[in-house]
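Hi R.,

As promised on Friday, here is the backbone we talked about, encoded as structure tokens. Could you run it through your design pipeline when you get a chance and send me back a sequence?
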């Protein structure tokens, strides 16, 4: 395990954020890299529980206590091997996952959870920097072929696993670029597209073929596919947004949804940062915004730039019932109020003083 008394000695610490004055000028990621020494302390907080509930919380079954311990002992190379053993893309999950492992962490009963997600992200980023993440082509070919329909994280993970055991894998994607919602859903400030492209380059080097502009069932029929490949895997995702069942959703609200993100991320295809634009007219006295999300903190960050144009803003979120409220205003200019998290529709009132740009942050 990490340090036996680590959870008693060290408090949970997270990554610092880039200054607001800097990050309102681009769409890039908000957290700053974390110092290795701090990370080791955070790893030391893990108790290596006899029954590690973080395992149950993690949908991937990540071997969390093992790599917490390896980070604490400064064995980063072994840590990435342990992490990759269950997770093809820790750089995606380390940025995007809502971290149910942390909600399950036993340390959280009496203190704050081990910083599992931060440790995960830092292990993989260090591995990329050190050159430890390299193409892993199969040792031999099976002679079998598989078509994977859809290039979101499900399709990509499936393709990588199948290729590594020696099948010839072709990923078919109807969009113009590979990545599914990783590219056309997740905004740049949560995960820069370079992170996705870096992994795709590895996969191509392993021998996976990507074909874009192929809409199976529309410009390529299933019979042709079945004739050409030994197996098909359908990873088409959910292409239809959920409705937002709260009163007033169609009134004077601004509704942010997938199409907005798609347009925004489309502008970032070449990893260029557009000039930030407010989504609400400047000088507007008050406004409301409706977002359907499982990640309210992310939307809160996104809406700070919108809210800056307003004297007040009402933000309505739909959240899963198990999620915990994690937003805290820090400098008095922003306040976030959450009713009981068991309610399906949660209203969050945000008051922002005009031009309160200097310190406004949202934790989580
Ligand atoms: C705005 C937004 C923010 C999100 N933020 C987070 C987050 O912070 N954390 C998190 O964990 N999750 C987040 N999610 C959810 C996450 O992106 C999805 O759960 C995940 O992408 C689903 O992966 P997938 O591979 O199943 O499907 P998708 O990513 O949807 O990929 C499916 C792909 O299949 C393609 N396809 C579909 N049909 C066909 C066809 N007939 N022929 C060819 N191609 C086809 C689609 O074009 C698409 O590229 C977010 C989603 C959105 C919309
Ligand atoms: S539940 Fe928390 S303390 Fe226990 S092993 Fe998992 S990360 Fe470590």
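Update: got your reply. Pasting your designed sequence below so it's all in one thread:
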């Amino acid at each position: 395990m990490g340090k036996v008394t680590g959870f008693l000695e060290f408090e949970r610490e997270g990554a610092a954020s880039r200054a607001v004055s800097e990050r309102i000028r681009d769409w890039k990621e908000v957290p700053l890299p974390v110092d290795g020494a701090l990370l080791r302390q955070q790893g030391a907080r893990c108790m290596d529980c006899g029954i590690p509930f973080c395992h149950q919380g993690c949908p991937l079954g990540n071997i969390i206590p093992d790599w917490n311990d390896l980070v604490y002992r400064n064995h980063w190379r072994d840590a990435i091997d342990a992490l990759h053993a269950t997770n093809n893309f820790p750089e995606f999950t380390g940025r995007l996952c809502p971290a149910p492992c942390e909600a399950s962490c036993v340390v959280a009963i009496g203190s704050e959870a081990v910083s599992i997600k931060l440790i995960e992200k830092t292990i993989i980023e260090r591995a990329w920097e050190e050159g430890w993440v390299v193409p892993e082509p199969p040792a031999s070919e099976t002679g079998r072929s598989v078509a994977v329909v859809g290039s979101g994280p499900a399709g990509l993970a499936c393709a990588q696993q199948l290729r590594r055991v020696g099948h010839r894998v072709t990923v078919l994607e109807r969009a113009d670029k590979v990545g599914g919602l990783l590219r056309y859903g997740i905004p740049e400030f949560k995960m820069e597209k370079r992170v996705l492209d870096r992994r795709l380059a590895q996969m191509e080097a392993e021998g996976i073929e990507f074909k874009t502009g192929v809409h199976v069932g529309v410009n390529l029929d299933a019979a042709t596919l079945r004739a050409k490949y030994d197996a098909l895997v359908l990873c088409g995702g959910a292409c239809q947004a959920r409705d937002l069942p709260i009163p007033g959703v169609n009134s004077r609200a601004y509704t942010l949804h997938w199409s907005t993100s798609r347009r925004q991320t489309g502008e970032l295809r070449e990893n260029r940062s557009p000039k930030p634009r407010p989504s609400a007219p400047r000088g507007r006295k008050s406004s409301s915004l409706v977002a359907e999300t499982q990640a309210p903190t992310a939307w809160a960050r996104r809406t700070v730039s919108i809210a800056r144009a307003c004297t007040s803003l009402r933000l309505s979120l739909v959240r899963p019932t198990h999620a915990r409220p994690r937003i805290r205003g820090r400098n008095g200019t922003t306040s976030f109020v959450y009713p009981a998290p068991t309610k399906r529709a949660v209203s969050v009132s945000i008051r922002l003083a005009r031009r309160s740009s200097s310190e406004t942050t949202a934790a989580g």
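One thing I noticed while checking it: Residues 17 and 88 are 27 Å apart (CA to CA).

Thanks again,
M.
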